[in-house]
Structures are given as structure tokens and as C-alpha cells.
Inverse folding.
């Protein structure tokens, strides 16, 4: 699982075997995890994050979505 960013306490990554899914990132902190689709930025699932922190993470993903999408496309193709 390549880590593509560390933003504050969050680790942002994708799984190499996720190529058959639309572009997305996983974000972890401690034992919590969330997955966001990138185009458009949409919540796929959340395990453990409370609503306020989830909104903060969504904002971070939105701010970096173009960069994350570029990394995804470089790895898996557009």
C-alpha cells in the first residue's frame, strides 16, 4: 500500500490492487479509516471517524484531490 501523503496525523494511501475501482484514496489515523472517491470527492465508507473529523478529512482530500488524482493516473492510467 503506497503512502502518497502524510497530512498532520493522517496517512493517505491507495492499494495497488484497487485499479479496477474508480480513483480514490484511503485515509487512516490510529485505528480509524475512511475511503473517498476522488472525482468527485465523495465518501465511500467510514470506519470510526466522528462527523467533525470526517468533514475535516473531506476538506483535506478536496484540497489535494487534483494531486491525488494525478498520482492515481500515473500509477494506473487515466
Amino acid at each position: 500500500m503506497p503512502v502518497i501523503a502524510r497530512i498532520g496525523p493522517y496517512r493517505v494511501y491507495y492499494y495497488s490492487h484497487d485499479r479496477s475501482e474508480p480513483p480514490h484514496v484511503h485515509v487512516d489515523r490510529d485505528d480509524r479509516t475512511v475511503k473517498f472517491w476522488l472525482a468527485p470527492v465523495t465518501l465511500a465508507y467510514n470506519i470510526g471517524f466522528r462527523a467533525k473529523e470526517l468533514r475535516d478529512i473531506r476538506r483535506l482530500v478536496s484540497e489535494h484531490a487534483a494531486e491525488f488524482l494525478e498520482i492515481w493516473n500515473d500509477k494506473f492510467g487515466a
